[in-house]
Amino acid sequence: MRQIVLDTETTGLEPSEGHKIIEIGCVEMVNRKLTGNHYHQYLKPNRDIDEGAIEVHGITNEFLADKPLFEDVVDDFLAFVDGAELVIHNAPFDIGFLDHELKLLERNKGSMSDYCTVLDTLTLARQMHPGQRNSLDALCNRYDIKNDHRELHGALLDSEILADVYLRMTGGQTSLTLGRQAAGSNEQAGEISVRKITSDRKPLRVIKATDEELKAHQAKIESLSDALWGKTKIN
């Protein structure tokens, strides 16, 4: 199974208002293992970037002045993702921008659904953790994934972090959900972390019953006349 974890950065929030993609970052996984293959590209949008967007990702108009247009790299990008399942956090946002960019091309390239299927990790997280915060930062905290180096958003960096989050989310049980928070607990309400046992732990000590304890147990069993196992002997 080939999966591509993908993220984009943009000039603003709405492609319908003429906003464009300025960065694409992808990392490849095959059979749930990171292969080391990735796709990363900055793009010249031919329009100004909103100040609010620059505060999020730190990418400036000046930095993008000599970068290629989307139409210049589209073939390489589609070749990289073709046939894979895209893993995206809040997929409608990124897919909406990618489909918009494809529609603007003079050559008919169709839409992303012609090349890939999509798994939205935000939808998955909401199903697994209803009523809780499910941003990428919140999931990093919940699954103990370090992202201290992430001062600003970046498409490649965020796709690498999302790959770790996705593998942790789908790799087995990581928490027990209870009806209420235990008194005095520091855990988030409704969730108690499960501590994993390391492979280098010391062997567990096995304590066997003494002869007196076995005789007392047998006597108790024999005193229960209605029990089906009342005549069971203990070796």
Characterization of the model:
- This protein has helices at residues 51-57, 70-81, 91-104, 121-128, 136-142, 155-169, 211-223, and strands at residues 2-10, 21-30, 33-42, 85-88, 117-120, 175-176, 192-193.
- It has 235 residues and is α/β, with parallel strands linked by helices.
- The strands form two sheets. A five-stranded mixed β-sheet has the order 3-2-1-4-5.
- The longest helix is centred in the C-terminal third of the chain and has 15 residues, at 155-169.
- The chain is elongated.
- Mean pLDDT is 84; it is low at 173-197.
Short description:
With 235 residues, the protein is α/β, with parallel strands linked by helices.
